[in-house]
Amino acid sequence: MPVDMDQINALARPKGILVIEDCSHAHGAGYRGKSAGVLGDIAAFSFQMKKILPIGEGGMVVSREQKFLDRAWDFVNLAKGGKTGQLGYNLRMHELQGALGLAFLPKVDGHNETRRRNAETLKKAVAGLPGIRPAPAAPPEDAREVYYNFIFDFDAHAAGIDRTAFLEAVKAEGVPLQRNGYVPLHTLALFEEMRERPYRLPENAPILKGRKLYGKGVFPVAEAAIAEGNIELKVHPPRGEQEMADVGTAIRKVLTHAGDLRARQEKTAAK
Ligand SMILES: Cc1ncc(COP(=O)(O)O)c(C=O)c1O
Q1: CA within 20 to 30 Å of 247's CA: 13, 144, 172, 233, which one?
Q2: For position 83, which CATH number holds?
Q3: Which domain holds residue 11?
């Protein structure tokens, strides 16, 4: 789902900040008549095995600026044999992967269409149920969305059941809903340990002024969404109308009996 890129560009451009699009989930997505990948300065697509164009591993960088593409190519192609003075790697795509990609590419639009139809069925199936709603609640205007996974926002209080119990009960109905496996990047120890680094860059000093960038609590809304409120479902083909209808039925059933499930949980806890 593209974010509101006009707003992001309007913030970034006057300050000379480059906008990098993470298009790992966005093959075929669009925004205000343009495709994801050309909405900022540089974009990266993932071809990892679970993505919309899955050819095993690897990815693609796109940009309208030749200098960024040259820099990316140096990086993946041994820094022109070490001649650039920069560190380079051997991350070149295998020809077999390229061939797989070319064979898969014509199928992407059709798969996206199925994913979109599945998403619409799901949205209808959960409409009006307490505690669960499709995310984002308000997609940007004129977005052509694609669904790598379908994401729900979950509100345990409104649902009357916590997320773990909800997911277990839905799974018992044969539906593989799951919490996502993401960890907010700013809370990873790797970045926490680098906490001081941005403060050492003189150009950052005026904006940072002692502000904390990494660690728990910096982005409380994102952290809470991942810790408590986020659920995902795979919607790729061959899953179709029937599977989505089954998901809706299972969710409805569990939420309708949330009170019973909670009572059972409390009884077990009291033993
Ligand atoms: C949002 C997002 N960005 C980037 C990546 C990284 O992609 P890759 O695994 O191809 O490096 C992923 C992978 O899951 C992702 O989900």
Answers
A1: 144
A2: 3.40.640.10
A3: 1-46+59-92
